[in-house]
Design a protein that fits this description.
The complex is a heterodimer. Chain A is built from 10 helices and 12 strands. Chain A is of the alpha/beta class. In chain A, the strands form 3 sheets. Chain A has a 6-stranded mixed β-sheet, sandwiched between helices. Chain A has a 4-stranded antiparallel β-sheet with strand order 10-11-9-12, covered by helices on one side. Chain A has a two-stranded antiparallel sheet with strand order 2-3. Chain A is elongated, with a radius of gyration of 24 Å. By secondary structure, chain B is α/β, with parallel strands linked by helices. Chain B has 14 helices and 5 strands. The relative contact order of chain B is 0.13. Classes of the chains: A alpha/beta, B alpha/beta. At the A-B interface, helix 2 of A face helix 1 and helix 7 of B.
Chain lengths: 282, 348
């Protein structure tokens, strides 16, 4: 079976890059190819300026968080961190400082003597992230890093990712959540091993050419919909709702002069809609 | 290049994990004692291929032909009792019979009680077949120490058996876990090499092997009264070498198991044959000819032999270097290479 056939991507340094796509679209495969865990049958891949065949020498500069989380449940939080620090030759004061810093960041400072196996799912996740960051990698590959993390902490994760990117580090993140993708500088939307669309969230919305629409709840949906149509509006029925495509917010006022809705809502196009349009799926 | 600090980091982690696993620690301490009690007194089968020296100084032809008619013995005729004694103490012969008109001497190797028994029983029944009236007195001479019982010979062998079993299973389970919890994949994207991983494991487990063997040894000596004639240092070194090989073998086999449950299924395949065929409970000589070649490719056969020699006969390093230590080094080298190879293959 072919995977990642015809995939061309260029990820600049110092950005947050999101690999978005449904399960099985090749996100993890792509990440594993970047770190050299999958040998390429063809094509070309360069990592941090070097060909992927010599990626081994770059491992001290790469942080890789797998979906499996890669921790030892029978070691404490502190011991897990010490172990991964040791692998990268971090010891003494630097190790102490680094561990304290990261535990603070993932809010696990009070749990350092607990066994990792006794942590909740979200905590386990956070510890895994902290272990991945221990050696201050330049290139971070995070496979679904925020699954199971509560919204407030997710927020602080993202602020941290942005901060890393502003320090010149490259953060590549996979997710299947749109709202997370919107936080990245560049989003690559993968489908079936191909890059269906790529760009900043704003570019993608513009490229898809999607317009906002107004959703109205009306007393007589059928009658009023046809009245709006006769005025030249693009109207469609969605159950009891009447949906009108608009070009700009100025039109809202004009529409309200024609009908008096019981309730109304303005819907901006989502990144999801844009990707579905761009990838030709419905 | 191996970075010794990284090896130590892995070793420290392994020790921390094992230290927390109280059940395993209890098991490895008490298992040897229970095994000795269970099997300490038992088991003797049909034997064959016992290398027996025969010195005929005249007087008892019927006694000699009785021995020659028994399929258990391969008989080598010798000129003097001194020659026979030398060959038995070198380990070239399992025992000897010296026949003179007035006395029959049995030169027995007390470190193999079952073989000594077989020779003794053959002599007693041979004496009954002898020409009436010409009866000679049978005198038993032990080349090594005294009349030992089963616990004496099983003690040193248990040492090797338990270390092999424990280390093999634990290493296989540990590496299955490294795979399933994703840490192995993480190692593959870190400066840690396969050689360093396996070396770290060997270092960490060796500390436990040392602890376990020392406890077992003390119990064997104090509770069961088995003598320790050779160097305890040599004894423990042999155990560590065997443990390192078993660890590497377990690592290699973990590649063929997807779960801890599947590791358990290796027991009948890898562990049981060693328990049965490596001379721990009964001498190799009592194992049927057609399976005996298997005994000679099992590492535990050589470990058992070396441990017995050091403990009961007081053999030194030179005595056990060939074939025992050599075989264990070969076993370790092959297993280590195989373990590294399968870990490597996972990368690409």
């Amino acid at each position: 079976m072919r995977a990642l056939d015809g995939l061309t991507v260029r990820i600049p340094r110092g950005v947050t890059y999101c690999l978005l796509g449904p399960n099985g679209s090749g996100k993890t495969t792509f990440i594993r190819a970047i770190v050299g865990l999958i040998r390429l049958d063809g094509g070309d891949l360069h990592v941090l300026g070097k060909h992927v065949s010599s990626v081994r020498s770059l491992y001290p500069r790469i942080g890789y968080m797998t979906q499996h989380r890669a921790l030892y449940p029978d070691l404490t939080v502190q011991e897990n961190m010490e172990f991964f620090a040791g692998l990268y030759g971090i010891d003494g004061q630097r190790r102490k400082r680094r561990i304290a810093e990261l535990l603070e960041m993932v809010e696990l400072s009070d749990h350092r003597d607990r066994l990792a196996g006794a942590l909740s799912g979200g905590m386990y996740q956070r510890l895994s992230l902290a272990c991945t960051l221990i050696h201050e990698p330049e290139l971070l590959l995070l496979d679904e890093p925020t699954v199971g993390v509560d919204p407030a902490l997710r927020q602080s994760f993202w602020m941290y990712f942005d901060q890393l990117a502003s320090e010149g580090k490259t953060v590549i993140i996979t997710t299947h959540l749109m709202d997370e993708a919107e936080r990245c500088r560049i989003v690559g939307y993968m489908r079936a091993g191909r890059m269906a669309a790529e760009g900043s969230p704003e570019d993608i919305l513009r490229l898809a050419g999607l317009k906002p629409h107004l959703e109205l709840r009306l007393e007589d949906p059928e009658g009023e919909a046809s009245r709006l149509r006769s005025e030249g509006y693009d109207v469609e029925m969605s159950g009891e709702l009447v949906r009108i495509r608009i070009d700009g917010h100025a039109q809202i006022k004009e529409i309200l002069e024609i009908v008096a809705p019981l309730d109304m809502r303005l819907r901006e196009p989502s990144l999801e809609d844009a990707f579905l349009t761009l990838s030709g799926a419905t | 290049m191996i970075d010794i600090r990284r090896v130590c980091v892995v070793a420290l982690r392994v020790v921390r994990q094992l230290k927390r696993d109280r059940r395993t620690i209890g098991l490895i301490t008490f298992a040897p004692i229970v095994l000795m009690m269970l099997f300490g007194y038992a088991l003797s089968g049909e034997m064959s291929g016992i290398q027996l020296g025969m010195v005929d100084l005249g007087g008892h032809p019927a006694f000699i032909s009785h021995f020659e008619g028994m399929k258990e013995f391969t008989i080598l005729h010798l000129g003097s009792e001194a020659d026979a004694e030398r060959l038995v103490s070198d380990g070239r012969l399992n025992g000897a019979v010296v026949i003179s008109p007035s006395e029959i001497h049995l030169l027995l190797d007390a470190t193999s009680p079952q073989i000594a028994n077989a020779i003794r029983n053959a002599a007693l029944s041979g004496a009954r077949n002898d020409v009436p009236g010409s009866g000679a007195q049978i005198v038993e001479k032990y080349i090594y120490g005294y009349d030992m019982d089963m616990t004496d010979t099983i003690g040193p062998a248990i040492l090797g058996l338990v270390v092999f079993f424990f280390t093999f299973i634990n290493a296989a389970v540990a590496f299955v876990r490294e795979r399933s919890q994703g840490t192995l994949e993480k190692f593959m994207v870190s400066p840690l090499s396969s050689t360093e991983i396996v070396s770290g494991y060997i270092l960490g487990f060796s500390l436990f092997t040392l602890l376990q063997s020392t406890t077992t040894l003390l119990v064997v000596i104090i509770v069961f009264g088995v003598p320790l004639k050779g160097s305890p240092l040599l004894l423990l070194s042999i155990v560590i070498l065997l443990g390192a090989g078993a660890l590497a073998l377990g690592t290699f086999f973990s590649n063929f198991a997807r779960s801890e449950f599947q590791v358990v299924q290796f027991i009948p395949m890898v562990v049981i044959p060693q328990i049965i065929l490596s001379g721990v409970w009964w001498p190799i000589q009592s194992i049927p000819d057609f399976v005996r070649p298997i005994s000679y490719i099992l590492p535990l056969t050589y470990a058992t032999d070396a441990l017995r020699a050091v403990m009961l006969k007081g053999s030194n390093l030179r005595d056990v270097l060939y074939p025992d230590i050599t075989a264990l080094v070969v076993f370790f080298t092959i297993s280590f290479a195989a373990a590294i190879l399968v870990l490597h293959r996972e990368v690409a």
